[in-house]
Specification:
With 65 residues, the chain is an all-alpha fold. It has a domain of 36 residues. 42% of the residues lie in helices and 0% in strands.
Length: 65
């Protein structure tokens, strides 16, 4: 059974442009939605979703995911 999970996540939130070397593959929430996004609420929502998936992984195993 799993005893821990380590996840690394990076989210560009309010960038208005990306560096030239990333412009073809990266974006930000502001670019995508066209408005500023509150980073703390975005982080909370992400953690809630990660918790849901972690609990599903712990109870049902990786095949379900």
């Amino acid at each position: 059974m799993f005893t821990s999970v380590i996840v690394g996540v990076g989210i560009d939130v309010n960038h208005t442009a990306m560096p030239a070397e990333l412009a073809g593959t990266a974006t930000s929430l502001r670019i995508g939605y066209g408005k500023n996004t509150f980073a703390a609420s975005t982080g909370r929502r992400l953690l809630r979703h990660l918790e849901t998936y972690y609990n599903q992984l712990a109870s049902e195993g990786p095949a379900r995911l």
